[in-house]
Amino acid sequence: MDPKPAGLSPRNTKQGRPRATAAKNGPCARCDRGMPRVAATWPEGRLCFICFYEATRTYGTCPDCLQHRLLPGPANDAGLATCSTCAQIPYDFHCERCGNEAAHQRGRVCVRCALRDDLHGLLGGVPTDPVLLGLVDALCAADRPESILAWKRSVKVQQLLRGLGDGTISVSHEGLDTASGRPAEHLRALMQHHGLLPHRDPYLPRFEQWIDAKLDGLPDEVRQPVEHFATWHHLRRIRAKADAGSTTRGPIHSAKQEITETVKFLVWLHETCQRTAATCTQQDIDEWLATGPTTRGAIRTFFVIAKKSRLNTTVTVQHRSAKTSPSLSQDQRLAWIHELLTGTNESLPYRVAGMLLLLYAQPLVKVVTLPTNVIDDGDTGMSITLGSVPTDVPIPFASLLSEHLSARPNLRTGAGPDNPWLFPSTLAGRHLHPNTVMDRLRDLGVNLLGARNRAIGELVLECPPSLVAEALGYSTQVAFLHADKAAEPWARYAGRTVKS
User: Fold this and answer.
1) Which of 151, 287, 364, 365 gets the most CB atoms within 10 Å of its CB?
2) Selecting from 3.40.50.300, 3.30.565.10, 1.10.443.10, 3.40.190.10, what CATH number does the domain 330-494 have?
């Protein structure tokens, strides 16, 4: 079996800019790599910027003087870094503003104090609003404040902060809505994560705006029934889900497709047949469905609602079921498992997400919403809870999962390490969007639906479908359906056991 799946697209997973190779200043005293520029000259010799950055951000207990402080000095014989006093580094790292030991950003001021000065300048002084005051504290408390310094150089970010400071943008969800864009969403997520703003569903407001834009410019014969359908069926249902704390991403995605297809049909009906939703005939429906893609079947929900509301009771749109179900071969599935375990064509978080798909048949929409507490790394081995009972994690994947847990990305720019998600987003307190993971794995060449179908098909051949459903969070009906497709009717399982 070829361990490299066909269609694999190599990807460069190295982060940051390539390291400069010029060595006109000789080798670094610590890493022995060539230096295009010298960051500092200490008793041990000249240091490159990479080693200097690491040294001035390492804290702990000095093994020589046993004080807890900054440890910029070289490692001793035991491999432990030492403080500046014990290492005889002729530089005082204490910030003249806050007194903490840290790398200096401007003169004798540390990075956090320099960042606080810049934020106060953009906000028009020290804020009196407790929300803005908490926002400044949250940004300055970032594990890597240098990233916030770089972030605030953006003209859009500066305009947003000045607007919040002078009151032209209110410190509320409604105010941030008027300043739409990634900077506003970043601040909104950060303030929600730290309790400075109440939690609000991230998808519902955009869906409401989308409906208004979709209805704009439609003729009255089309706009009125679509507006009733979108508002009284979809929007009311999705608002109820948001109020209950349920995720709305999936329902909104489905609602958008149904509304879009309904608009297309009613516009065609109005322009081609000179009829409306109320006067539509079964022949119109059949012609529309037969002359286009299968997505046109999404108009079914509209006509179900139309029949209930007595708008049109004469037409019927049959429920459509997929005629084919894509599936990888078992050899392809094993090849992808091998690639994601050992390959370097994708970064670690996406390899872990792909393994959860290939090993446990978990849809990526569910994978991104898994919290870290579903994983238990005990003395008897690692397990993961995907359904109602824990499931063992095989040793090769357990090592990969442990590596991911110890180095989850996106935790250093304001959210802090308390993000509960297994796959944290760049937005504070949120998980990755499922489309982000889907696009990365598709670009790599993974057939997502085929991989999930093959995974659950193999699992129901190895275990009774009811146990698979219980362990992986599937319904019993779905598990038995996959067992039937795999030509292994487990309904006879108990009978075979008794006979034996």
Assistant:
1) 364
2) 1.10.443.10
